[in-house]
């Protein structure tokens, strides 16, 4: 009979851990082509439609789920975990149907919720070990992995403290630890850097990047913070008002078929934006001084100058810009 | 070269079946409560009656004149369980009131239900924590009282003459514990405050008793005992121990009341124990 203790792991006898990354997933766990597949998913809260007929595939690897607040990102993750029953549609996680195999799916995924969440009355190591046991790990193994995972997320020195005394940043880390303790194949991370200071945020992003790129853990990172997604993920799915706005490899989505210019003008900017748009140059309306103009392939900065000259607008500043995820997002969502 | 890799490593060990999750919850919860001194105090206090009753049995066996007064009867065991109701109430409040309320307060439900366990596993685990302590102050001491009587008298004569006692103690204790567990957990799922749960549970107990008392005064009949939670339980207990019924309420009505209470409690739990709270 195994008994879990709060004692640190014995360094010389690490039990059943194997390697670091390359052999994921295990021999008994077939690697599916897609981490998540959605077919016509509709989720409604009463009369409000949170997700409307969403069909998408999330490839294995690091996928960013991007969208403004209220776009339906958290709803999608909660539906995938089986917390919410969709009104319509089918969902598959790691090749398994969510309706038919919710428990098997949950044994293979880790979930880091957006809100603070912990089991009351436990210190960090007890909490993480408890989560491991709930996920099916034997008590001794769960305790050993709890120590290891807490070191990994940077809470090694604070692992005997009550979670209630943790700072916001530490609570984010402990949520990541409990999601990792049972060695999931797929992680759902819901706004993982919320409330963290810049240093903590960088460290959290580094951990997420390491998990996805060096440890072979697939993950879906839900965030409204573009830099977070850009730094950690390879693929992107943009949600807006419960629908998929765009999706694909971030590199491809950013890679312009044309070019982008930052522009500052003297004259009626609203009218000039309308002129640009009428001539096939994308330019999200903006209240700011500097506007970003997407010039499609086949056109160049000369066309911008020509249009300005035709409409009596003076260009005071024009600079070629590097396309960012913000541009992808703005184009997809149609916001400034 | 590092002597110990503190990086993230994958796990290749054995995994236990998901059906054991309720047991993990129960074991952890019981361990947590046993670390608290007030809990130990309550459990110790709950066994004082057992010691007193055993002492009475001993005296009745040793002193012939005292046997009529202190000797065991079938109703002794019914009275024993009835007097343990004070500790049932204490434990229901001390252990039960926070079982779900504190998880809701700490947003723990989303953590629990993101693991490979069902809502039934979660509720069963929480119920097992409370039921263990309640059985520890009802069923176990009552059985030990019966065993103690046999040991002190040195014969099976009393036990043979009251064969109903073992099943009666078991059935009544489990009914009482199950009903109390359902009611307390349902109340605990309704709020995030442990105090509110304690007040609500005490309110259900005392208010239903007060309503019954008023009805009895007005009508002069005990036929309305079914409105009282403790009254219904007492009526069912009397029937199980084959004692004279204390109320004129039909036993079937009391059983239906308890069954309805359980049904309502389970329905509340089904609605409140969810990974996400939807406010549409």
Fold and architecture overview:
The complex is a heterodimer of chains A (336) and B (280). By secondary structure, chain A is an alpha/beta fold. Chain A has eleven helices and 14 strands. Chain A has a six-stranded mixed sheet with strand order 7-8-9-4-10-11, sandwiched between helices. Chain A has a four-stranded antiparallel sheet with strand order 3-2-5-6, covered by helices on one side. The N and C termini of chain A lie far apart (61 Å). Chain B has helices spanning 21-34, 37-46, 48-62, 67-70, 74-83, 85-105, 108-112, 119-137, 139-153, 157-161, 165-189, 194-219, 229-240, 251-272, and one strand at residues 10-11. The mean pLDDT of chain B is 93. The chains are: A alpha/beta (336), B mainly alpha (280). At the A-B interface, strand 1, helix 2, strand 7, helix 3 and helix 4 of A face strand 1, helix 1, helix 6 and helix 7 of B. Strand 1 (17-18) of chain A pairs antiparallel with strand 1 (10-11) of chain B, so a sheet runs across the interface.
Neighbour order of strands in the largest sheet of chain A = 7-8-9-4-10-11
Q: What helical percentage do the residues of chain B reach? A: over 70%
Strand content of chain B: under 5%
Most residues in contact: chain pair: A-B, 62 and 44 residues
Flag low-confidence runs of chain A.
1-15, 18-27
Helix percent of chain A reads: 25-40%
Q: Strand share of the residues of chain A?
A: 25-35%
Number of strands of chain A: 14
